[in-house]
Write a structure and sequence with these properties.
By secondary structure, the chain is mostly beta strands. It has 1 helix and 24 strands.
């Protein structure tokens, strides 16, 4: 009887000890990451239904299509938690489970190993908390092609200079207007400028087969608009000049500048770090682009060497920026956003909403 009583006392003491002792740090009852607890994962299921409402446990996640998605400006780290995507000057290394890439206009997406902090990409410099395009004028100092802000200029001997085939005119780089066949159409004493508007396959006014179509303001029966796809108008069309329509015996020329000879020219051009010469088999994407000329495709200069995502507008180089980013005019914001006149930032147009960094059309 005494032995039984002793066993009962020992059992009670053990029970009290277990209740007062916290579980080990890595115990299955203490999740070490969001993957250990599916309810805390930003990809967990959720519902906005009033009757069966199930909100996202992470405050930086929103319910979309029945799943929790990190809000814009946030991304899931290796623990599955939505944290702010770092930008200029913020930590981006593996310490403290940071996001291992960077975001922001002009910010290099690659996290530098040496500093572990987000830095400006080539051609940009820090201005306060943002990266600003250097936008150097002709004859101003440069470290690379990406620094130059005048269209069709590159960094030569440490200064921004017009590329081959262009000459300086009123602080900009201008080229003689050459056509594949014959001479450009004249409007008085000047070459007749034109605008080509391209409708993509997803537009309502595209071709019947779903392919791209284009219209221009040149005489339809005799001329076409000879343009570089990266030289734009205020409305987004391609700017060029009117040339006689193709006939036999064409001379392949670029709509500005000199073509470089490569084995093949396609949209799958190989990017090379060399900003002054073709890569051999492909058109070098940092300095040139493939342009359709009559029945062939030429490797022609881009207006903004070193910045292949930039376009030219009124003789200078600009980048297309994301919603929420600073803008100078409408064209920078793309088709689904507008440049707010008061804040000078790109905002989604009506019937569009910001979704994962993009302005997406809202459906009823």
């Amino acid at each position: 009887m005494r032995n039984i009583l002793l066993l009962c006392v020992l059992a009670c003491l053990a029970l009290v000890h277990c209740k007062n002792t916290p579980p080990p740090k890595n115990s299955p009852t203490t999740p070490t990451s969001f993957d250990d607890n599916p309810d805390d994962n930003p990809d967990a299921e959720c519902s906005n239904d009033r009757k069966k409402k199930k909100p996202c446990p992470d405050r930086q996640a929103t319910c979309q299509g029945g799943y929790c998605i990190c809000k814009d400006g946030f991304s899931a780290n290796d623990k599955g938690k939505c944290i702010k995507v770092p930008t200029l000057g913020e930590r981006c290394d593996a310490d403290k489970n940071n996001i291992l890439y960077c975001a922001g206009v002009g910010v290099s997406p690659v996290c530098p190993e040496a500093s572990g902090k987000c830095e400006c990409q080539k051609g940009f410099e820090p201005k306060g908390k943002v990266c600003q395009f250097k936008d150097q004028n002709l004859n101003e100092k440069c470290d690379g092609d990406e620094d130059c802000g005048v269209a069709y200029s590159s960094c030569q001997n440490g200064k921004c200079t017009c590329i081959s085939g262009f000459t300086v005119e009123k602080g900009l780089c201008k080229a003689a207007s050459k056509c594949p066949n014959g001479d450009p159409l004249k409007d008085g004493a000047n070459v007749k400028a034109c605008e080509k508007k391209v409708s993509s396959g997803g537009d309502d006014n595209n071709n019947a087969d779903g392919s791209d179509s284009s219209t221009d303001n040149c005489p339809a029966s005799t001329h076409f608009c000879f343009s570089n796809p990266l030289v734009r108008s205020a409305t987004g069309g391609e700017i060029g000049y009117c040339c006689p329509k193709a006939t036999k015996g064409n001379t392949p020329v670029c709509p500005g500048g000199d073509a470089v000879k490569v084995d093949q020219c396609s949209s799958d051009a190989e990017v090379t770090d060399d900003s002054s010469a073709p890569s051999g088999n492909f058109c070098p994407a940092l300095t040139h682009t493939c342009v359709d000329v009559s029945d062939t495709t030429l490797c022609c200069p881009v207006p903004c060497p070193g910045q292949p995502s930039f376009f030219a507008f009124e003789g200078r180089c600009y980048d297309t920026v994301a919603p929420g980013s600073p803008c100078k005019f409408e064209l920078q914001c793309g088709r689904s956003a507008t440049c707010d006149s008061s804040t000078k930032t790109c905002t989604c147009k009506s019937n569009y909403a910001l979704t994962e960094g993009l302005c997406e059309r809202q459906t009823e």
